């Protein structure tokens, strides 16, 4: 193991997502190969210490590993494949993006005339891959060291996360991260609509309402939404509802019809059909796992 992987392993004794001593920071461990399947990635920065993950989004395929960090500027439903084994588990540091921190850094960069002049709107999708640098690895290493101690995490953790954000903003693909902070960009407007969807997915959500929320025409909103998320607003909403339903079925052992209602479906039969089509298993089978 590398030094970074060793520190991650110490913070992730259990399979799956492990909390740390710092809010918004987790470490994921996966000790077996995971076949391609749907899941939802949260808004955040992901740094791999060991192993590899492959994402499938729309018609694109890309990997993130120890040489490539992944940044999700908005929460996105994707399909994911995991390359790992008992001998070499995949280890991933997961850091939430704090918009207050992001805005603070970008404001300081603007004061020092360090905002890139060529921020291209056409590249402002909901994610980007950033090649890791020596400076970025050093920042990750120091954060992982601090997370080993509750006191150090409390004293230095926030500053070290701030440093990681700064390193990512310095990467060549970071235009979507800047766009997230600038209120007039298409990405920041779509992010506002996505926040609404995640708060109200169990209710009736109309595309016209979302477009009005971000001061766009329905046609312009639909086009921008697809550019950022690789899904239409209706497709995105459906994926979020089904992903949340799977979490409820596995964690709370609720009845299928109750879960269907809770995530916004009026028909439990329609819910079951769409759930099976998306996850390749019935809601009942999922609940019994």
TrEMBL record:
**Top-level taxon of origin:** Bacteria
Record-annotated HTH araC/xylS-type domain positions: 191-289
Record-linked InterPro entries: Homeodomain-like_sf, HTH_AraC, HTH_AraC-typ_CS, Tscrpt_reg_AraC-type_HTH, Tscrpt_reg_HTH_AraC_N
Record keywords, A-Z: DNA-binding, Transcription, Transcription regulation
PANTHER family (alphabetical): ARAC-FAMILY TRANSCRIPTIONAL REGULATOR, ARAC_XYLS FAMILY TRANSCRIPTIONAL REGULATOR
Name of the molecule in the record: AraC family transcriptional regulator
Q: Write down the species.
A: Shewanella aestuarii
